[in-house]
Amino acid sequence: MGMQANSPWLLLLLIPWGYFVWRMIASTARLQGSRKAAVITIRAIIMLLLIAIAAQLQPFWTLSERNVVFIADRSSSVQADEALGQWIAKAMAGKDDEDMGGIVTVGLDAAVERALSKDALRSEDSYTFRAVVNDQFTDLSQGLRLSSGLLQQAGGGRIVLLSDGAENAGSMLRQAAMLKSAGIEVDVVPITPPQVTDAAIESFDVPSTLRQGEKYNFEFTITSTTAGSGELRLYGDNIELTRSVIQLEAGENRFALQSAALDPGFHQFRAELFTDGDEREQNNEAYAFSKVSGPPGVLIVEGEPGSSANIEAAMDASFIRHETIAPERLSVELASYAAYDSIILHNVPATRIAEKPMEWIAKAVSDYGIGLVMIGGNDSFGLGGYFKTPVERALPVYMDLKGKRQIPSLGLVLVIDRSGSMSDGKLELAKEAAMRTVELLREEDTVGVVAFDSSPWWVVEPTKLTNREDVISKIQGIQPEGGTEIFTAVQEAYNELLEMQTQRKHIILLTDGQSASNPGYKTLTDAMVEKQMTMSTVAVGDGADQTLLQQLAKDAKGRYYFTKDESTLPAIFSRETVMMSRAYIVEQTFTPQIGQAGDWSALWKNGIPQLNAYVATTAKETAEVALLSPEGDPILARWPYGSGRAVAWTSDMTGRWSREWTAWPEMPKMLTEWIKWTFPQFESTPYSVQAELEGRKADIRIRAEGGEGDYSTKLTAVINNAVGDTKILEPVPVAPGEYKASLPINEPGVYLMRIGGGENAAGGAAAGTTAGFVIPYSPEYRLLTHDNGADTLKQLAEATGGSVLAYDRPQDAFGFAPERMRQRFDWSRHLFVTALLLLLLDIAMRRLSLPWTAWGKWLHSHLAFARKQSNEAAQAASSASVLSVSRLQQRKSRAASFFENDNDRPAASAKENVKRTQEVIHNVSQQETVKPQPTAPARHEESDSSAAPKPDSNEKVNRLLAAKNRTRR
């Protein structure tokens, strides 16, 4: 056993330690005597412990054995788990009993398959890997670092690395110096990956910026292992543009397709390759993007076909490019919205907008500066079901009325199907719809929730909403099970509504299944009408009994909804709840009042036409309300949201509620000004973005065009991927006008980035430009030669003093001579705890007025008593030993006297001799049991001093003692 210091130069601290101890002895005047000595000793020990910890002083034991850790490269470029397992098993079979072997697997990360152990593997022919690693990248440095830690804990050893050397994350050569300093040699076994039939898109290039009408080429580089034909498909903004049959040669192939930039905006492209017998599909897709400059564009989403004629005419008059679509055609790709400068939702109910487009519209405003305008009608704002939606968050108005006016009291019962068919996410969205309805209602309203399968079950008994949290908690507890029986559930809801004392009574029925026919439905709906109740029905999916639900809604004077998209259920419930109040549409003729119009004040210098109706909303706290109703409701409001801007017009644009406005000659100009106000606010200096993949992160470099800027300019980058995940980065300046950031990456594709100066209140880039970058598939799947990997492996072996092992000789893994290795014990934690306890003791001895002297005397007296007891015990043991020897001498003398007297008498018969011998033995035994008096030894010595046995009688005495021992046994 020895001691080793990893930082021996820190042991020089012992010099000031000695000086410090001397100073304490000389200057600690306040403490005296043993207390002073104790404090100085404790402090000295504490400093010694801290010096030992700092110098990493550790005990070690010297061992003579061979330790080997095998690193198996299990990345996708190798794909040889079975071969690697067989090689390692054969190598482990060749080790001695005292040798230890361990196994580490590596991909992007590393994991310990088997810790260092002397035990043999279960099989000498193969090993099955169990650890899970990310095989989409290769970072061999992770495996080397982990293996080094295992070997250093065991005192040292070697690493055997089995890999193709094609690393694409980290650097194994950077670990070489660390391994060399630790005395760890690395032997390498180059692995040749199996040959596969594969064709890969190595590159896909499109000009990043284009002008409208400009011609350009899509350029492809495709590498193939075999010759043959394939099909190349090209998609733009998730719409197929073309597909071409191509002929491939073994090796590198180049192709080009010509196109022309048509629509201004941001466009993303995807190329897909299909070939017969392709064994690796991960490298068959590539991505690109381009930003086409041109006149501004507006997307008009209309609820009723042809209802946007007035808006389109205003756009045409100002030469603003526009496109009108139905809400069902809204794209599920975020990049599609970046192609427009503003989005107009014209009397569109939220029930017709799917969940993803709803999110993308809000993100387009907040993250990419796209404008948003909502124009009213009977399917807009709260009436359209936008309560608690992403679009409501982006608009300058709330969808509910915030208790501003008298609203009829409402009794509402939600009848929700909880059968087993609702388990695939439908029930979760139905519960979300119910909870959103509860949030929309007022405390004066009464709500009940019935869940049904084969029978109804009251989740929430009808109650006023004085405790919303309790009601929502109960709704969250609904679980799917059972069949479907509608009639009894609706009947339960009807019976409870009869007892409610509210002005409006309504039932919302939701189901996705069929129910047995029941002649009582008609009787039940007639009773509802008689009692002034209404019922709306929601059919989810094609499996619902649409005929029955449609008839029930018609007979009960309600509304029927059918949806295949469960994500619209919350909007449907919100819409129904709002419509039941009948207070959201304000029908009266009035002239809007001018509020905080700002730069829009000039639009009304010649007066304002009258309006006949609008949808009541509540202005948000920071919104600018340009026009108000006599009740103070917002008619026209605007505000900035994130990087973009939004406008709300709560009346319509068809002329039904705004006949004088639509006939007003200034209306087209005014509407154009509203929309232009929402256009993106770009900075004068655009940015270019480049991204390089490094493992599961992308190193992003942002450069200001022209290299302008300085180190003090702060940027914020808001990044969205294809699935809508948002990440806000703060790039670090690395040069004037150049910034760097790191982004975790999960999937390849086109990423949009909003770059601006600083961050706004909504968490987005305050102002700036939209850029993009492409993350390709992992380099693990590229069809490249692995010769460079073999060279890198050889360099690693040479740098650490290892060697290149032959793949067909696994027994060489333990072929090196055993080395004397040091197995160390890390006791730094124990030393630190000890130092901490001593510090507490030091503080106690100096600060606490305790009877330390009395305690010291008490401890000293107890220690002295313990020493005295120990000495007395030792003396007693010594006396007992002397006494035993004395008794033995006495017996010997008496026996000698007996036989001496016996020699003087005439010879006796044999029987008499035996009898006398037994008497002597009996007497000796009797004397042995008698405890001698304290003065007995002296008397015996005096009486027996003259009767010393003769030399010739010793043999007889010995025989007598032997006979005595036999009788005892």
Could you please describe the fold and organization of this structure?
The longest helix has 53 residues, at 852-904. 33% of the residues lie in helices and 29% in strands. Mean pLDDT is 82; it is low at 760-766, 902-910 and 927-953. The chain folds into 7 domains: 2-60 and 827-850, no CATH class; 67-193 and 786-815, von Willebrand factor, type A domain (Rossmann fold, 3-Layer(aba) Sandwich), CATH 3.40.50.410; 199-293, Immunoglobulin-like; 297-400 and 584-677, Class I glutamine amidotransferase (GATase) domain (Rossmann fold, 3-Layer(aba) Sandwich), CATH 3.40.50.880; 411-581, von Willebrand factor, type A domain (Rossmann fold), CATH 3.40.50.410; 687-781, Immunoglobulins (Immunoglobulin-like); 886-968, no CATH class. It has 969 residues and is of the alpha/beta class. The protein is extended.
